[in-house]
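User: Here's a structure from my thesis project, written as structure tokens. My advisor, Dr. K., wants to see whether a designed sequence matches the one we expressed. Can you design one independently, without my sequence as a hint?
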């Protein structure tokens, strides 16, 4: 059984859609006041749904790390929206696998299960961006000399 491939234009639409999703979901992480509000809303939703795990009170370090993450992801999102490429999609797919792994790890170690709502989309876009592209340009071959800097 072989999996079908998708065309480059369709793939680039997926890359752009993943950028829009990330921008929509992540921009509140970039600013202290919007992240504090979002974090409170996630806490309320998790409590209302009775989800297991803990959402710890925010401290300065948590806020800094959330703001750094949000800032980087906003810029990365804009890059994929403005100029999607197969390479950016593949790299984003790698990032999504990493994000999913750390989110699952966090929940397994006591973080609130509300995190898994984000994980679902990470995995979905990760799989789609690692899908075979039928007419994708081949990556240029890098010679051993180029790698050695000669």
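Assistant: Designed independently from the structure alone:
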């Amino acid at each position: 059984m072989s999996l079908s491939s998708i065309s480059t234009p369709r793939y680039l639409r997926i890359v752009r859609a993943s950028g829009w999703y990330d921008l929509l979901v992540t921009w509140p992480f970039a600013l202290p006041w919007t992240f504090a509000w979002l974090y409170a809303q996630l806490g309320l939703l998790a409590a209302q749904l009775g989800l297991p795990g803990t959402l710890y009170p925010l401290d300065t370090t948590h806020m800094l790390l959330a703001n750094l993450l949000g800032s980087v992801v906003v810029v990365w999102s804009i890059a994929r929206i403005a100029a999607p490429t197969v390479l950016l999609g593949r790299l984003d797919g790698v990032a999504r696998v990493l994000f999913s792994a750390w989110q699952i790890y966090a929940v397994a170690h006591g973080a609130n299960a509300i995190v898994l709502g984000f994980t679902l989309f990470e995995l979905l876009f990760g799989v789609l961006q690692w899908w075979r592209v039928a007419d994708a340009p081949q990556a240029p071959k890098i010679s051993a000399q180029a790698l050695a800097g000669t």
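When you compare it with your expressed construct, this may help: Residues 55 and 112 are 6 Å apart (CA to CA).
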